[in-house]
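Following up on my earlier thread - several people asked me to post the actual chain instead of describing it. Fair enough. Here it is, all 540 residues.
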Amino acid sequence: MLIIETTYNAQEKLWHGEDMEDIYDADQTIGELVFNALKENPTNVCQVCDSTSYIYLGRYCGQTLAMCIRLAQHFRDAGLTHEHIVGIVSSNNIHDTHVMFACLFNATPFHAVSPHQAPDVIAALFAITRPRLIFCDGNDYELIKAATRDWQPTICTLINHIAEVPKIEDHLKPTTSESAFAPRKLVLGANQTMGIICTSGTTGLPKAVTLSNAQLVLIGNTVGTREIIFSNAAIDWISGIKVVLTATVNGATRIVSNRTFSAERLVEIVRQHQVTACHLTYDQMSQVFNSALATTEHLCSLQAITYGGGWVPAKLVRAAQRVLEHTIFVCIYGTSETDIVAVALNPEVDNLVGKLVPGKSVRIVSEQGAYLGPKQIGEIVIQTNQAWSGYYGNAAQTAQTRDSAGWFYMGDLGYFDDDNNLYVIDRKKDALCYKGHRYTPNDIERIIVELPQVQAVCVVGIRDELQNEAAGALVVKQPDTLLSEQQVVRHVARRVSVEHKQLHAGVLFVDKLPYNANGKLMRNAAKDLFYERRLPRASL
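Reply from S.P.:
Thanks for posting it. Predicted structure:
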């Protein structure tokens, strides 16, 4: 089991992860690492696609390498270099990784955007990076064409092809020179941008986050060639990219699926392919381990489950551990900008995200800018000890997020305990105020989720006539259970006595909470839903 330590400098009020020992040279391109891994194991199965278009279609490393080389050669023939960008609008299609790897081979940055984004968001994001070439599902062709009409890039379809429109197969035909192909070297050093993804956009328009070569080569070697990995995260998400790279470089097999996630779907994939490790969002964790399908028999092949992206109640983790006693559960805390910051193995305490990973440093900062010590809540600021090119085309937001000393202000609130464990309690921008008293939604969510009838909860601030942000709760009940608004309100009242943490705006029962395509809870959408359908104010 992986054991990492965090140290604390009391004089500087500064927490450090262990010194980082590079497994791979940051000056070696991630494209070279992928290229060599595929070349050395040509008969290994690197991905099996379980999708609506390609049912259980296996792709050997040798086949994948050939496809990526041919596509990279097309990029070179088209004059694409490190100064250009290739767009990808897709979600777990079998060709997603072929395009991404070809970009890495050519050292041409890819910009991955979820097709589930609103059309105006896709247009705004691509207007920032202005890709010369974009790959997409044929069903999204007209949308992409309209979004990019100002510069008219070449659009190539991945699936659902359209007559007279270029398709990826046009560039996958054998060439006479592919045996002599070699990935391009870095031109700008380890900090050269190799990829661009988007922030979650939970509170506004997503930003385009640059990913350097140095960040992408930070992949572990704990995965073996016999591992079978599944994640529903696509390559427009940092976790999706890291799963692809970790599996490929270490010779593991990755299961790809573009079908809608559900507990039933996960169980089917795990049983069919004997999956040994999977990565889940916190919403997916809730779906799976609140389901009767989550049994030891169904999921016994799983040796490790990593999860992150939001708050997972400790009671849910404990329930999962009872089902899978021999499975390691790993909570991951990180951001697109900083990569992984902390990990916790088998956490059984709410909000615990564990020890800092090697190479990361953290301070806890008050609203006045003072450095705080253990057990004091403030903003979590992070230093990665790596250069960062910032948000593409947005110098102002870059400077606001990362200061001149290299500290990232990501807006999370948290603290360290006396054993140097990090806890994340909420987002700074989600903090609420009622009659002059500040509180966070998670203060109340942790109490509501104690009720056995509750599957998921989101607390929002509803402004009253005095502009107080009264707490209102959107609650998803467990199937076939009975729970009333008054039961929820009274449970909170029994557990916390202060007035500002009571459910003054009441409770709204919903079938599901609003999440984006990558499993992030959309609090603004939840608040809008509460306003639209709010129940009469609860009374105690």
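The radius of gyration is 24 Å. That should answer part of your original question.
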